[in-house]
Amino acid sequence: MDNNKKISPEMFEFVNINERLTDKKFDDKPIGFLKDAWLRFRKNKASVVAAIIILLICLFSIVAPLFTWHKANFMDPYYAKKSPRIVWLRDLGIADGGTNGDYSEIGLTKVQSLGVAAEDWEGKGGITIAEGMQSEYQPVIKINNTFTKTDANKNEKTYYNAKVDNYLNVGFLYLSIQQSELPKIQAFEQEHGIHILYPLIEDNEWNNGDAKDANNWYKMKKNAPVTVDEDTGRAKTLQYGDDLVLEGNYERDGEGNPVYWKYTGGGDHSTAQLKVRVLYYNWYRYQHNNKEVNYAFGTDSQGYDLMVRLAGGLRLSLLLAVSVSVINFIIGAAYGAIEGYYGGVVDLVMERVTDILGGIPFIIVATLFQIHLSARLGAIPCLIFAYILNGWIGIAYRVRTQFYRFKHQEFVLAARTLGAKDSRLIWKHVFPNSLGTIVTSAALIIPGVIFNESMLSYLGIVKLGSANMTSLGTLLADASAIWTNYPHLMILPALFISLLEISFNLFGNGLRDAFNPSLRNVED
CATH number, domain at 361? Predict the structure, then answer.
């Protein structure tokens, strides 16, 4: 008999092969702990999806500001509380900066007149409402439908439901500029083929009594557009329609030419102040190197780019939550390991300390720190101290429980018999068996920190709103009084908070199963 004859692997038939233990090539090399944890984690589909969502939110917080030239401290008060607008998607009806509203004939005339005035930069007149609707500066995107309402006097009036671009609806503004700025504006107009300066409006009986409103460019009486008979001086109310031609109320010189600027004070050529009337959409482009007005998520209540503010708030929340989680993980793991391993008097004394600290409500600690220390240390350091004061107690309790569970197991007794020191027994033998529970607890700290930070910011206990920094809670607080008219200001921050809360909880559950040693090499 040939003792050196090898048995062919093909002669064997394997049943229930576990890829984590071996493979078809008879490789029985034991699998590593982390790889085994990953194989179990990826079987939890909900946790995998949650991890992907968390990753995407993290990427958004980092990458989003790169897609806009707006800096965190860039604010335009004239474009505050506006809806999302992306120029190249506007023709598709997506992110067109528009909102739907109901307008009377007089109200719709005023909005449509902005497009007419934008085309009538020479002040010649003769442009109909229908022609003004073709202007690229026309705020009215479309008229959805018409309907009638009965007023208090039982008179039926026609109303229009229209979608209006809120950015173009800003229209015209009066500004004060230095005389030296005037040639630069005119050169920009010629270079880019756009118009910024428009005729000033006459301050008379036909400007609706508001000389500061640069949009009241046509003659009106009691808000209604009128035409004035040159012989009698009487006003005749104009009827709304596509062929309506509004009569301009521009300020003119002795020769009848429209006036585009007026001296208001100052000494020499460089310091003299001029009053001008500008189309704000093009003034914005002039101020920012001909950049179009794009706000992918709209603007917040103050005029900041909401996408940039959301990204900044997410970065702040995530960095704060992860930092607190790591610190509490280290403190809680060390504290719980010591009291759980040694037990007895050590455990008794240390438990009383945690009882005292655990009895202090977090919101009171955070409030006191903000009142007495934030002026010297800053709001964020005080918030971190409040989280750390008793935030590690939950982890310490879980570690202590796990140590009581495992410290008398056979493998620990065997290691002690072989001469292992306490430090080795704690960190090499008992602690790894507690890792699943500890990691889960640390991961679940993150959504708790995010929620509490948002709550404290929303309530105004922690002040995290500034030109360069904000938080999700601050955005919610700013939107709380106006969200019914501007729902995107509330929906977007609330959506990100909800996604983070749900995703981190699902992710923590997946980590718990993945790092639980008792589940190692066990098939579901």
Answer: 1.10.3720.10
The number of domains in the chain is 2
CA 367 to each of CA 319, 321, 327: distance values in angstroms, whole numbers, following the listed order: 21, 18, 21
Which residues, in sequence order, are bridge partners of residue 148? 158
Structure tokens at 118: 């934008």
Pick from 475, 454, 331, 464: which is nearest to 389 by CA?
Answer: 331
**Max CA separation in the chain (angstroms):** 133
Of 218, 312, 296, residue with least CA distance to 488: 296
Give the residue from 223, 255, 287 where a domain finishes: 287
What pTM does this model have? Answer: 0.83
Q: What is the pLDDT of residues 57-69, one digit of tens each?
A: 999 999 999 999 9
* Residue 27 placed within a domain: no
Residue 364 lies in a domain: yes
DSSP count for the chain of H helices, then E strands: 18, 10
User: CA-to-CA distance for 40 and 42, rounded, in angstroms?
Assistant: 6
In this prediction, residue 154 carries a pLDDT of 75
Over the stretch 330-361, which tens digit does the pLDDT of each residue have? 898 889 888 888 888 998 999 999 989 888 88
Domain enclosing residue 351, as ranges: 50-63+310-519
Q: How many CB atoms lie within 10 A of CB 429?
A: 19
Among the residues of 343-430, which ranges form H helices? 344-358, 362-372, 374-377, 379-391, 393-406, 410-417, 422-424
DSSP state of 519: G
pLDDT, residue 520, reads 56
Residues 57, 115, single domain; the answer is: no
Could you read off the pLDDT of 155-181 as tens digits, one per residue? 788 999 999 999 999 999 999 999 989
| Separation of alpha carbons 409 and 146, rounded Å | 80
